[in-house]
From TrEMBL:
Domain 2Fe-2S ferredoxin-type residue range list: 222-302
UniProt name for this protein: PDR/VanB family oxidoreductase
Domain FAD-binding FR-type per the UniProt entry, residue ranges: 1-100
Organism encoding this protein: Streptomyces axinellae
Keyword Protease in annotation: no
Cofactor(s), by name: FAD
Amino acid sequence: MQQIIVDRIDQVAEDVVSLVLRGASGPLAPWEPGAHIDVALPNWLTRQYSLCGDTADRETYRIAIRYDPLSRGGSEYIHRFLRRGRGLEVSLPRNHFALEPAPEYLFLAGGIGITPLLPMMRAALASAVPASLVYLGRSLATMPFTEELRSSFGDRVRIVPTKQQGRPDLGTLGPGLDSGALVYCCGPASMLAAAQDAFPAGRLRAERFHPVARAFAPNTEFEAALARSGRTVRVPADESLLEALAHAGRPVQAGCREGVCGSCELTVLDGEPEHRDDIGAPAGRMYACVSRARSARLVLDL
Ligand code: FES
């Protein structure tokens, strides 16, 4: 974890604040476009936010948070109670939405989904790779960073307030692109669905706010053997691995608890996990908040 001080809080759109977080004791860990951090809030909640500042700035991170009326306490705390000067802990940056090399990029942002795409756009153009950004939001007043985008990227950015202009047909954006172009999309589920209809899966990279609804086989009980401590933890059918570990006195870090952020990643030494996350677990890893086991026993590096 890294200690930071909240250096600035700015209202950057209706219901959206941006925070500038300054390292409390020197430079912060480096990051790449698409990365996010876990922010441990004083109300005991941990939330994930994409970094949307300048990757070259090692003194500060910038994040932006939309107030969610259905907030489980994260955005509400930040909007109502967090003040400048407050010290917090944040994780090292983690990146499940990295910018892969391509001859051209199309970035599709919906609302607060602009946050990971803003540094991607900056990085693409800094490398002289053609890139354009289509940014949708209900109205200009609800869309953060529009002025910054216009001044930095000019006519490479198309800002679409959908209440006035309607939603563009994403299918019309594909034909002019290089055949190797990659499309990065971050926004609400409806936008991701439209992007999936408009672009082949091999060209689309998407980051979700929430998991896709999917059906899984009924939960079964399994054992988690903790290789470092020699303990074995029973994971009943009505508990997640994350919960069972916490109940056994071996809690692991967690954020979203929905299989989208990666905070609860564990190393699997033996056994076959049943992956239920939306990240795409690398070989030998699993996400304890949602994933379970196909084998009767998993051996974990804990
Ligand atoms: S807590 Fe976010 S993936 Fe498990």
